[in-house]
Amino acid sequence: MLQLIDVSKVYNGNVVLRGINFELESGFAGIYGPNGSGKSTMLKIIAGIEKPDCGRILFEGEDIAGKTPEEVARMGITIVYQIPRPFKNMSVIENVATPFILRVSYREAMESAMEICEFVGLKNKVNLKAGLLSQGELRLLEIGRALAAQPKLMLLDEPFSGLDVENAKRVRRILRKIKREGVDAIVTAHRMKLLRDIVDVSYEMRGGKIAEG
Amino acid sequence: MISALLTAIFLSFFASAVILNYKIGRLLNLSFASIFTLGAYIYFSFNPTSALLLALIFGGIMGAIVSAATRKLSVAEATIISLGFSIAIEESLRFLYRTSYYQVMETNYVELFGEVVSIHEMLNGAMIVLLFLAFAAIPLSRRGFELKFVEDDWELAEMYGVDTSRIRFLTISISSSFICLSGAVLAPTQSLFPSMGWSSMVIAVIIAAIAALAGNAGLRKYGLTIPIAIAYTAVLRWLL
Amino acid sequence: MKKDFAIILALLLLPLLLRSSFIVSVATMAVVYSILSLSWFFMEKEAGWTSLVHSIPFGIAAYALAINPVLIIPAFLLSLLLFTALSLSGREKFVFTSFITAIVFWYFSHYITLSVNGGVVGGEEGFSFLSIGLWESYLLSSSMLLLFFTSFALIRKSGLGLKIEAVRDDEFAARSIGINAFKIRIVSFAISVFTATVAGVCYLLYFGHVSPEIFSVEIVLLPFVASLIAGNRWASPIIGSYIIVVVSRAFSGILPETHLLIYAAVLMLSPKLKRWWGASAY
Prior knowledge:
Chain B contains ten helices and four strands, in the order H-H-H-H-E-E-E-H-H-H-H-E-H-H. Chain B has about 240 residues and is mainly alpha-helical.
């Protein structure tokens, strides 16, 4: 499904990714590593937010390395940012309905969005402005919005960071549900322990290099 | 030619003040348009010596008010507030002088290298050259270092204990003071009307925008305003 | 939104009931400016771009119609192109790049002249056009105002509205879910510019004359001030336009600068007013 071949990235003379080779056929892959190891950069490069300096990224056989974020999203890859980026002046349901709008009518989008809100546990907050949600709820909203894009592959950048135990549990539950739905994903975290019961395969990232761990 | 050069020096000074306020004050200070006009009207209303002093004081006060009113706001919000001040000053002048007629004041002229030049224009040119020299000397002082620090990274400077609010306040007040003074010195060479400052303001912003393309590096962007202003006045002379 | 619609309908019907030519003439001016303010409000509230350049589509449309009605379409396209080009500087800088552009355009508008039968028309004097009459103008501009107000309400409750709002709130996040943010930006500009263009047409059809004053700072700031003085609702720019027109008329003999002093006060208080209206909405 997804293959990274010799992908490198340099920021201001600092090598962030050093010839990354990575492959995901299906399921959930976990990437753990310390701050600055290159996890977020790798996800941003896959999502089209950053451009690799060299290397190829194949998604379902097509090279997506030069594509824009919207083109990558339309191919079925969506990213959940480490720091949530909601549409803060829109209601929760409108946030989730927006990706649906690209495929269906307004009414259908709203109906489908309601289902997703129920799925991620935000049914009671559908009419609330996203800017008024708590950190944990924002993370759930981000996941819900990404799901609404009906992705083939989800990129979850540190989905547990900044969450208290309760909210981390909620996010974990949702991720398991997503996995059961058959969506593939790459999830990053600081520590392996956070990902152990969610992912099928895990990798360690250190100094811009990746290794199975 | 000399007259064009003096105009270029004035525009370059105006544009530098615009850049400085944008970098340090984080606003496009549109109140300069009317503060310049205020200086000219002060010259029109008082005797020359008191007028210059009053222009410095009133300009500084206006700058201080603008600085206080635009603290901790976004660039867009601060710019809009400065526009409000500009209109308030302009309309107050219109109300106080209650005339739409142009006020024309007398000046003396001298012949220099075969060209007739206004004495006030020369005085203004000399004064602005002095201001430029003072401006260029600032980086050598401790305050100058802080100024450069704030200009480069406001938040970082604040974290390192630089009193950014004070630097911002002084920058806006002093530059407004100088703009008002230049309005007073230039008054005898211009037709006076409440919106007279806008043409200089718009040209200065355009010059500043072109100069800012040179990036954030040190004094380069301020220095660049001189050739751009000269090019502008040369093109204008050629067109007219 | 229904309450807003009722307010606007009441405002529009009142002069028809009073049947006074003076009141209708003031109301027509207010309605024309309301269309302009509404176009500005759409771009600010819905698309998130604070413009100080709406005088250009408004004025160019009036000029185009006065010179040759065929020029209306190029005028609209030119304005759209200008908005798009200015938007490349980013949202924050758009406020002052648009303002400076509007001022530069005002200066140059004094040089718009045409050679007609060996003579020169335009310039400071501007151009004349046949007015369609007071009542006709009022009915036309009122219909346009209602049409745009209803259209904007429908857009807000449509897929396009969701996309525009998503791009407004976070362009990058919108792109990450597959929205072509640049295309949506142009569409939202086109809607706003088209509305301002229609306002310009209504202006000329009512006044029968257009001069460089249509590009003046007063017109540049009118939609901004009108939208800010009467709240943060969709009826606000319309109510605000009425207030400005009525106040200007009332004080025109006593203190002609009144409305500009109001403008200055509103601009100086704008961040506080925005926050206040925003807070009172919750």
